[in-house]
Amino acid sequence: MKAGFIVAGKDDAYLLRHELILEPGDQLTFEPYEKHWFQAGPRGAVLYSFSTTVSDGLDGFTDQQIQRITVVKDEGE
After folding, report:
1. CB 26 within 8 A of CB 20
2. Which pLDDT tens digit goes with each residue over 44-73?
3. Among 19, 33, 39, 61, which is most exposed with the fewest C-beta within 10 angstroms?
4. Which domain covers residue 58, as residue numbers?
5. Are 21 and 3 in contact (CB under 8 A)?
6. Is 63 in contact with 10 (CB distance < 8 Å)?
7. Distance CA 52, CA 65 (A)
8. Given this model, what pLDDT does residue 68 score?
């Protein structure tokens, strides 16, 4: 990869290695259930996601450490 990198210890979660570098104003469309991942550059990134049917809570992740459903904790926890 030219600009991206695989996080140490996460080789099994990052299944795809085809890199597309998006510039400001670029957009990309994925088919439903198409595996993909994003990585920001040194200045960060702003992403907007639009869907005809919102099903974020049902998204499947190859990284088992990701918890998609929000958990609210008290300050003392």
Report:
1. no
2. 888 887 777 767 677 777 787 877 777 888
3. 33
4. 1-77
5. yes
6. yes
7. 27
8. 74
Question: 3-state class of 41 per DSSP?
Answer: strand
Number of domains in the chain: 1
Written as six digits, the tokens of 66 are 């990701």
Q: Are 56 and 68 in contact (CB under 8 A)?
A: yes
pLDDT confidence of 77, banded at 50, 70, 90? low
Q: CA-to-CA distance for 32 and 52, rounded, in angstroms? A: 11
CB 51 within 8 A of CB 58: no
| Whole-angstrom distance, CA of residue 1 vs CA of residue 4 | 6
Q: Is 14 buried (19+), middle (13-18) or exposed (0-12) by CB count in 10 A?
A: middle
From the list 3, 1, 9, 2, the residue with the least C-alpha distance to 42 is 3
